[in-house]
Amino acid sequence: MKTSVSGNVVRFWLATAAILLSIVPLTAQAAADRRELWQSRDQFVALERQDSAGDARVAANDHPVDISLDRISSILASIKVRFADSEKPGPLFTAAAVQVLAPHLQKALKKAAPGEDVVFAVFGLHDALYGLAKSPKVTTGRVFFKAGKLNLIVGQVQNDVNEREDRRLSPFTPGSRKKQADGEWMLVTDTPLVRRDWLAFGEDWQAPLVSPPVAGKVETSGTPQSAQRNEELRKPAERLIILNELKEKGLITEDEYRAKRMEILNGI
Asked: What is the DSSP string of 41-101?
């Protein structure tokens, strides 16, 4: 009986090892097909071969292409997303994420060959705990220019980030021409969707105009005081996230963590 149990354990671990070994070559092949142009932590912007669209042959992109930084930034900032458990949409990318991502996308599109797409993963601090705090979340996508339109296929939409995960086993996957992205969310934009996860911005697209406030109307949520207060609350939230990361990585002691956390909270 004991020998049988030991044999089962050995077979289990051999099967597990075989599965892991089958995964690693696939991720290694994906990495070999990718040219990373920028990386920070697990964030990246890279060039990779066009993905397939099922049995249909994918037409070459109109690359390289030079699109102004302002236009790319405006496009990213215009996209909103509404989740199933939310009453109103919010930005797909935070302002900070747009500021980081847009210049790298611009450079990548200038370098891309006709047979290459631009893929990315970027972090943003988004609401968590019913808006009481913010946590880092990742959004991924595939970008390419074809027939006068800048295309964006999203993959992961504001997914929680666990930086302890091995990205070789849990990679941030960009969008795909072949397979529609999963998720209980809906993209909200002023341009028609190609697919629920696929947007295409033509040359006639213009950034939405921001209407000036109506004279005499009392603004409660948009006053300088409320905006300043929101900024004051956001900064401690970001500092707490960084502080927690330092503790998890063993760069500060538990006592240092508690003292600094109390200092941040007392300053709110």
From this structure: TTEEEEEEEPPPBTTBPPPPP--S----HHHHHHHHHH-EEEETT-SS-EESS-HHHHHHH
